[in-house]
Design a protein that fits this description.
This protein is mainly alpha-helical and 360 residues long. Helices cover 68% and strands 3% of the residues. A three-stranded mixed sheet has the order 1-3-2. A hairpin with a 4-residue loop joins strand 2 and strand 3. Helix 1 packs parallel to helix 4 and helix 10 crosses helix 11. The radius of gyration is 23 Å and the shape is globular. The N and C termini lie far apart (81 Å).
């Protein structure tokens, strides 16, 4: 009897622990990846991930609603149902705890397999062979003046009816500019979807996100029109395997700024001005710098701030920032949510290297 029972016992053990074993293996690979970023670039980001992106986006593009949002609805329903069953003693609490642990372990593993290993790529300067220069105040002011002039010259209003056209223009800009940015175009498909929980997520300050499990680009319904081109390009950059928020901001800027379309160029400069003016606030002549802005641009920036403040919940936004900060730092983004702000240095570096390439 014992000999007959042993195989069944071991099968139960294997069924119980295999998700945790996979998660441990993924963790070991992550620790290796942190110290071997060129290996990640060559084998994961340039070879494995593009295939995953084509497979997942090739499926999700045929469904008009966000599968990422639907999956979380399903997870929440299943968890609440299982919790109620445990409370009414239909299932054992130990069984529930095991299944919750297995689910978390599997989600952890699937996240890194489908996209997350991109966090451990070399930085964009290394990938593109940029000459790294330390940004100083002179460079900062030069680029800031350029952004102000470009925003003033390209000021325009964007309407909701322009979204389909803008989506096509952004995609075309990625196609033509992908080589210079080291992107593996087409890298699957990018059907833009609207968040199911837009009204809730805007309270957290979330205007868009990339859903890695289904390789989806998701934007918030309440996104301000002038933010649409830049935010769209930012989330599409994530779909190309760009994990760093600063690098996604840089790529969104370059893609939109390099376009001949005024709406894209204005959105690029307008969004970068938010970061540059934030850094310029400590300068003695900050008020004089602001006075260089076209009154329409200045008014637009002020109305943008009022618009999002009216929609956001400060407590929920702080919670989201706290959690996302921990998440980014756990993936070796040392600055956490401040990584977004590092786009200032990247843009200055891009200007320097772009000018050097033009002079050659």
């Amino acid at each position: 009897m014992k000999k007959e029972e042993n195989p069944g016992f071991f099968r139960k053990i294997i069924k119980a622990i295999w998700p945790f074993a996979v998660a441990v293996l993924i963790y070991i690979i992550i620790r290796f990846s942190v110290h071997h970023r060129s290996f990640v670039e060559e084998y994961y980001s340039e070879w494995i991930y593009p295939g995953i992106a084509r497979l997942l986006s090739g499926f999700s593009r045929h469904i008009g609603i966000s599968l990422w949002d639907l999956s979380w609805i399903l997870v929440i329903i299943l968890f609440i149902s299982a919790l109620l069953l445990a409370i009414f003693k239909t299932i054992k609490p130990g069984w529930l705890l095991l299944r919750v642990g297995q689910t978390i372990a599997l989600l952890y593993s699937v996240f890194y397999i489908t996209w997350g290993f991109n966090y451990f790529r070399p930085d964009i300067a290394t990938r593109l062979g940029w000459e790294k220069k330390k940004a100083d105040e002179v460079h900062f002011r030069e680029v800031l003046d350029t952004l102000i002039n470009e925003a003033n010259n390209n000021y325009t209003e964007i309407r909701l009816s322009d979204y389909d056209t803008i989506n096509g223009l952004v995609e075309e800009a990625f196609r033509t500019g992908s080589v210079n940015l080291g992107l593996d175009y087409p890298n699957g498909y990018r059907r833009t979807k609207t968040m199911i929980f837009s009204s809730l997520l805007i309270k957290f300050g979330i205007s868009g996100y990339f859903g890695p499990f289904f390789n989806e680009v998701n934007l918030n319904y309440y996104l301000q029109p002038s933010d649409f081109p830049f935010t769209l390009a930012h989330e599409k950059a994530h779909q190309f395997g760009i994990a760093s928020e600063a690098e996604a901001n840089l790529i969104a800027f370059v893609i939109c700024y390099s376009s001949d379309n005024r709406e894209l160029r204005y959105s690029a400069c307008r969004n970068l001005l938010l970061y540059f003016l934030g850094d310029a606030a400590s300068l003695k002549d900050y008020n004089e710098i602001r006075e260089k802005l076209d009154p329409r641009v200045l008014h637009d920036l002020q109305m943008r701030q009022k618009y999002y403040l009216s929609l956001r919940n400060r407590t929920l936004e702080k919670v989201q920032t706290f959690i996302y900060n921990i998440f980014l730092k756990s993936n070796h983004i040392s600055k956490g949510v401040l990584n977004y702000d590092q786009v200032v240095g990247l843009v200055i570096s891009w200007y320097d290297n772009d000018q050097m390439m033009q002079e050659r």
